[in-house]
User: Fold this.
Amino acid sequence: MARKIGSRYTVHQVIGRGSAGTVWLGEGPDGPVAVKLLREDLAADQVLVGRFVQERTALTCLDHPRVVGVHDMVVDGSDLALVMDLVQGTDLRTRLEHDGVLAPLVAASVIADVADGLAAAHAAGIVHRDVKPENVLLDLAAPPGPGGAPRAKLTDFGIARLVDAPRRTRATRIIGTPDYLAPEIIEGLEPRAAVDIYALATVLYELLTGTTPFGGGHTGAVLRRHVTENVPPVEGMPDGLWRIISECLAKAPASRLRASELASRLRLLLPELAGVGPLAVPAQRTATEEAPTPGEAVYAEADAGRGTHRRRRGPAVPLVPGPTPDSTRDTHTSLRRPSAGELASYAEESRAQRTQPAPGAHRRTRAQQIRRRRTLAVLIAVILLLAGAAAAWTAFAAEAPAHAAGALSGAWHPRL
Ligand SMILES: Nc1ncnc2c1ncn2[C@@H]1O[C@H](COP(=O)(O)OP(=O)(O)OP(=O)(O)O)[C@@H](O)[C@H]1O
Assistant:
């Protein structure tokens, strides 16, 4: 079903859905484009429309091969649309879901591409603020990079901030996706370029291990870990990659690499990563296993219905035509920022949990608890069954002589 967007674009087919709207395959005066049509409620928000128009230049000025370019913005009646480069391929989340983990060479090459895009954005004074696998598109039509790695492009610059900002963002709220939030954002500092580096290092860790370093469980637990915990070394992780990840996940923003440094450090490592197989990682965790501590319970509401770990799906433009992906998932979010007291209590909880040093270990302990509870339940059931059987036997034994006598006499009498 074709539909006109403004006077210059026609859209034909939905190629994906995100929390802010629907992405369509379209046609413009210069050829095929991707058109992100914002949700009606957002498009009807005059403050939001005003902000989009104000930021038009910032959004459309970024021209870099590793960034999905925004060519145009259309405000037309009830339509508010961003016209973008059309990327033929898939997004990094879908690739990760398909593969589980990526080989170190492929992961490093993809992240180096994204770091190049970020370097260009940061040089232009733009902070992305929502770097995550969903916002990295893999251009499968372009010649592959080292080790056959697909070329990556970063998309959705500033969209989370624009969409969340007008009505919901106050000094007390956080914009972003919990797993990728730098600690300084949680502590209330103004997000600078280093927040993107922290998020990108989180993505690199996730590509290599299949899980984010501080994710899992309720949002409050995730925020606490960002602020108070350090990532323990991962068995089998190539040293060079581990050093880069640790530097970029530093709690102090100033200690992190800059985007251009990150890109060049990763590229220097590529030759030694050639031929290194993907890490052997344990089975995926189940995020819902972890119950919130009292301090974290305040975030349960933010988690409800959002499914911070629901992962999705959906190609950008599939090279092989298939069914239209339905990618309805709320990925970025506006959260209440924890108070200083809550952060301090998170730190206390962290100290109390010293026997559970790593998020992975934390989750394993929780799984063990569940197993222990199940074993206990089975034991109690067996004990109750045995007790019942014993009581029944005692009662039977007490009555047995009389029954036996009656039965014997009853059995014999007729024959007498
Ligand atoms: N420029 C593009 N070219 C091709 N496909 C795209 C493009 N931009 C987005 N897509 C696809 O459209 C889908 C939805 O993208 P969108 O940016 O709306 O949401 P998201 O980033 O996945 O999630 P959210 O906006 O909730 O963070 C994704 O599957 C993505 O792969």
Observations:
- The longest helix spans residues 359-412.
